[in-house]
Amino acid sequence: MATSNTKKNTTLLALTSSALMLPGYEGALADAAPAFAEMGVRYSKYEEDDSKNSNTFGASSERYDIDVAQFHLLAPVSNNWSIALDVQWEDMSGASPWFVGESTPGEPKIIMSGASIEDTRTDVSVTTRYYYDRGNAGFSYARSDEDDYKSDAISLDGAFNSADGMRTYSGALSASADDIEPTQGSVPTNTLKDHKDIRSAWIGVSQIISKRAIVRFGLGYTYREGFLTDPYKFRDKRPDERNEWTVSAGYRHFFVDANAAVHADYRYFDDDWGIESHTVEVAWHQDIGDHSRVIPFVRYYTQDQADFFANQANLNDTYFADDFRLSAFGALSGGLRVKHEIGNWSVNLTGERYESSESWGLYNGDESPALVDYWRYSIGLDYTFK
Amino acid sequence: MSLRARWTSFLLWMSVLVSAAMGAGPVSVGDAAPKVELPLLSAQEINGDSLSAGTSFGLDDLRGKVVYLDFWASWCGPCRMSFPRLEQLRQELGPRGFEVLAINVDEFEVDALNFLSEIPVTYPALYDGGGTAAQQYGILGMPTAYLIGREGQVRFLHQGFRKNDEVQLRSKIIKLLGE
Amino acid sequence: MIIVKCLLAFALAALLCGCETVQPWERGTLAREDMAWEGDIMEGAIRSQIHASKEASSGGSGAAGGGCGCN
């Protein structure tokens, strides 16, 4: 069902729970609760390209279509506290590859189960944050619910400024407990009911470089344990433990003459399943007049394949996955965001295109015929209670 | 001594002399409020005079009054909230000898002017783009305000601005007005 | 891995830079919304979620991750 293709947002929690902002943003000596409450809604459409005829047994198949609605509310509660509520509804429909087979040796193709998926998921998270003179601390609870999957997660995070305010230290811890109960029906599943636990930690340092630039570095670690196999993919069997590390860097620079800011971010990822990846993202935030902004953005991603990835199962393998997500590939995506302010309202529009291919990656591997390309569109409305 | 050592020792002496001249350390309660004289951001009617934008104005022009010296920036959230409330206090207690003197520390003057056109006030606002007054007073963030008594001494320090801060400010100002 | 070592060396250099202190009143540019680390929260959330569900990597953007609905 849905779980083979969708991940509960690991960073929804991250983004709502951590205010990794530098001191002085509210102007006051103290790290203060936001001056005004804010609210926003978004509607997004995610559409995967149909799998190609050449990659699929039988005719080319449609893949996933997802409609997403998001709601966000952040409000100060007294001078030292704030509360945030984030809700996300997802409506998924379409088809997902069941497994990969070879009709001709060396020519792997996707086999679809023929089943059509229709699933909805609801994510809710609540964050409460405390502000004091040199920093802030937050606590979050998040719940994710869909037919075959439930998740409960909590997270704790904090930020602390140096005495001169030039540097901010931050850290976060989170834990989640997930229950899987795959929908029975069109395909036999790899389990009837199972569980997994995830623990995660992050530390970061952010430094003011000049009046116009800031830099940030972060280190992350995640431990997953339990049923990590994809329940809907034929013969999929993965280890019941996974250790992951990330090292990341970010840079922001404002160009006064151009009235624009450049954002650059890099992430290195490594785990004990043999997967290594690099992600580079660059965005240009260009002000147009006093009320609009145009933001073109690009992203390059490359990953190595998991040790046990293969397009064809070998019966002697302990672990096996033909899931394209664990194959070696490179992905290029880019898009444009446009934002316009009218009084206390702000409207925005985004369009993004993502394409992936084994040949675009820095690592060699067997190209999975199931690699995805997609379009994503979003429209949003925000309001600040001034 | 090597050239580098000479240069370093020269700089160290210079900085000692400069800071001695400026008065060391941030201004705190009990200190005499350091002199402030800066250009007006916009035309001002004060003490019966009509002063044009750019005219030099400062604490000396408000001698004998209870002054709320407020350092602010257009990008400071709490400042947006404080301005209308300070304006109210000024309207109420002005006739008794109270004045607000706002010192703007924006890097770009146009940002300060835009802020004032959105949130107009009748009290004088001065431009400290170079940050000399800010440096002298040793402020650590905005808004930072110094409530100065009629005698010119800093009596209260107020950092940040929260909802209903004007209530306790009002009682402090009235106390100082009565002296 | 070479990249990680370079990153850590660069991090150390940047942090020990002895950057000339930027005074609190000089931080107007840094206070701009387009100079924030996280930017638009909902946009960041949906992109992270899509990437984490279509790729093998996740996290790295701040704070720790939560539950993952995929395997």
Summarize this entry quickly.
Chain B has about 180 residues and is of the alpha/beta class.
Question: Can you walk me through this structure?
Answer:
The complex is a heterotrimer of chains A (386), B (179) and C (71). Chain A contains 1 helix and 18 strands. With 386 residues, chain A is mainly beta. Chain A has a single domain, classed as monomeric porin ompg (Porin, Beta Barrel), CATH 2.40.160.40. Chain A is globular. Chain A starts with 9 loop residues before the first helix and ends with a strand. Mean pLDDT of chain A is 88; it is low at 1-30. With 179 residues, chain B is α/β, with parallel strands linked by helices. Chain B has a single domain (25-177), classed as Glutaredoxin (3-Layer(aba) Sandwich). In chain B, helix 2 (77-93) links the parallel strand 5 (66-72) and strand 6 (98-104). The longest helix of chain B is centred in the N-terminal third of the chain and has 20 residues, at 3-22. Chain C is mainly alpha-helical. Chain C has helices at 2-15, 41-54. The two termini of chain C are 26 Å apart. Chains in contact: A-B, A-C, B-C. At the A-C interface, helix 1, strand 1, strand 2, strand 7 and strand 8 of A face helix 1 and helix 2 of C.
Identify the notable features of this structure and list them briefly.
heterotrimer; A: 386 residues; mainly beta; Porin; 16-stranded antiparallel β-barrel; two-stranded antiparallel sheet; 1 helix; 18 strands; disordered N terminus; C: 71 residues; mainly alpha; 2 helices; 0% strand; disordered C terminus
